[in-house]
Amino acid sequence: MNNFFKRISRTKRTIANDVDDELRFHLEMQVDAFEDQGLSPEKSEAMAQTRFGNVEKIRSECIQISSRRSVLIWLLNSLFLISLLVGLFLRVLVPEVHVNQVGNMLMMIGGLGVLVVYAKQAGSRMLNAETQEFRIGLNDGPPVGFDESGRTPFDRVRDE
Amino acid sequence: MKTTRTDLMQGTLELLILKTLSRQAMHGYGIAQQIHQAVDDLLKVEDGSLYPALYRMEERGWISSEWGTSENNRRAKYYKLTKTGRRQLQSQSSNWERVSRAVMRVLEAT
To answer: Cα(first)–Cα(last) distance of chain B, in Å?
Structure first.
């Protein structure tokens, strides 16, 4: 139950921040481990990245997995769909005018709700697309992977 | 002697993660280290590939996660096996044994 509330209270930003924190922690730990073995900070960063793989792709995949089955979205979707169907049932099959009006209202609430939920999901997909360009930095310094002149650690190691 | 590193087969990573977490709760980096040590560099496992697998496994209810403090006082996300995860580990392990026995039989026969 605790998990349920934890999941529905998570926003897109919270999900993205948690993923960033987790991946950053991994990269920082790996860099520290390489530095402990006597490698230079630059080489350690480069090797940590190589060992990790494509950070952007992994980040985006993690955010997508975390967001796609939000319990809240699922519940809302189900409720709105039920409302839409019940409204349709009342509108079509029950002849009384006042019941028809209730049906109309339920259909309107359900239809609007479904639209809003889908719009929010589309927003989440856009956020994921936006964050493709995000780079995870280590120790709040320059982003890992690129220096001021736009070279990757691989370029730096090759040039040394 | 040159060691050949083999790419991990589809679905195997989940089994390795389940097995690793069956010992104790761990953060992603710890899981990666344990797997690297266990496979002794024979299998090619990119550290990053662990995370989408961990997220999918959490979604399926095999593992649960909680933020905590790491051994060096940093904020880290710890994963632990759930009851469903334990059942999944048993089922995947026996499935793996069955498949590997079957493959070995074919290899020995030909």
So the answer is: 28
Name the pLDDT band for A2 (thresholds 50, 70, 90).
low
Tell me the C-alpha distance between A126 and A73, whole Å.
17
- The answer to whether B55 contacts A53, with C-beta atoms less than 8 Å apart, is no
Query: Mind giving me the DSSP string for A111-151?
Result: HHHHHHHHHHHHHHHHHHHHGGG---BSTTSSBTT--TTS-
How do residues A70-83 score in pLDDT, each as one tens digit?
666 677 778 888 99
Query: Do B46 and A23 count as a contact with CB atoms less than 8 A apart?
Result: no
Question: CA-to-CA distance for A42 and A146, rounded, in angstroms?
Answer: 11
Residues of B in contact with A26 (CB under 8 A): 27-29, 32, 47, 51
Q: What is the pTM of this model?
A: 0.65
- What ipTM was predicted for this assembly? 0.87
**What is the C-alpha to C-alpha distance for residues B86 and B92, in angstroms, rounded to an integer?**
10
